[in-house]
Design a protein that fits this description.
339 residues, alpha+beta
Length: 339
């Protein structure tokens, strides 16, 4: 591995959307604004699945979209990634978050993580960009990275020899807000630009948004922490916090003097609560591991968050971020909420 002298600048998004933003900025004008305005949390109680965006972020200009491709072995995967790189000059690949050579310490999990590949050297090495940054509960950390990996290093990074868990599979499917069909082979995956448009419909039983989603999330989190944590609610909530912080920062920076003092304070209050959330999640998770779950802490945190989001909702809606009144989403219904 060789590191570039200048690392990319993180915009503070999740492990999926951070590098999606890097891809879109060269492909879709106004993508940063689109990402900020897309933020919303939808929860499906029946499955515990989460959707973080109210529009299909894989849709691209010109009746095209990003779709998954897969391969059963490394040779076919490298050929597929190289072909997409030759066509478009960049390609998103699904990498193992726990195997990134630029991690400091250990990651919390081996989970799917989008990386941006944007070139190759004459020697055949792969140039990657990863704007994601994080501190892990295990004590490890990740800083933004740009540099080259040998073919052997790159091959190890994009391999999931045992496939994906059901939680990670669903997270991949809903990574862009609405379902994107998974490939037949999931041991190696990447994304290609293809014809067509992803429909903005969520599958299955009703989904909740707004205060109802936060209340359901508190229930799911408490149950997951009292169990074995296999539903991955902590990871989705960490992502939700990053997305909402990004949304509010974008609104406050863009609206400027158009906000009254009361409106600005309402948005800043939601920002403060979302910023506190990861610390609460770490505390609750560590308490649960010691056999002392904190359901009242979880309930209180999400009740306060729901109240603050409700108070700021008219401000968000007035500037094209979400809708002022949330309601359950019927199966198969559209969920676009303004913007």
């Amino acid at each position: 591995m060789r590191t570039d002298s200048i690392a990319p600048t993180s915009v503070g998004l999740s492990c999926y959307t951070e590098n999606l933003a890097g891809y879109l900025c060269a492909r879709a004008p106004g993508s940063t604004d689109l990402l900020a305005r897309s933020v919303r949390l939808a929860v499906q109680p029946a499955t515990g699945s989460f959707s973080h965006h109210d529009r299909a972020l894989n849709n691209l200009p010109g009746n095209s979209r990003l779709g998954y491709r897969g391969a059963p072995d490394t040779e076919a995967a490298l050929a597929g990634v190289a072909a997409e790189l030759a066509r478009h000059g960049r390609v998103l690949v699904v990498a193992d978050s726990g195997a990134l050579p630029w991690l400091s310490g250990a990651a919390d999990d081996h989970a799917p993580h989008l990386l941006l590949v944007d070139g190759r050297t004459p020697e055949g090495d792969w140039h990657l960009v990863d704007g994601f940054t994080a501190l892990f509960s295990s004590g490890g950390s990740q800083d933004p990275f740009a540099g080259t990996l040998t073919e052997a290093e790159f091959s190890a990074l994009i391999a999931f020899p045992r496939g994906l868990s059901q939680v990670h599979r669903m997270r991949n499917i809903l990574a862009f807000g609405f379902p994107v069909a998974p490939p037949a082979h999931e041991t190696h995956q990447w994304l290609v630009e293809e014809e067509g448009v992803t429909q903005e419909r969520l599958p299955g039983a009703p989904w909740l948004t707004g205060a109802a989603a936060l209340e359901e999330t508190a229930r799911l989190l408490a149950a997951d922490l009292e169990g074995d944590g296999s539903r991955g609610v902590l990871e989705d909530l960490w992502a939700a916090a990053q997305h909402h912080l990004f949304r509010d920062a974008h609104l406050l920076a863009g609206a400027g003097d158009a906000l009254t003092r009361a409106e600005r304070e309402a948005v800043e209050a939601t920002t403060a609560k979302w910023r506190e959330l990861p610390r609460m999640l770490r505390f609750a998770a560590n308490s649960a591991r010691r056999g002392r779950p904190r359901p009242s802490l979880i309930t209180g945190t999400f009740t306060a968050l729901a109240e603050l989001e409700a108070a700021a909702s008219p401000v968000h809606a007035a500037h094209g971020y979400g809708a002022p009144v949330a309601r359950p989403i019927a199966a198969g219904s559209h969920v676009r909420q303004g913007g």
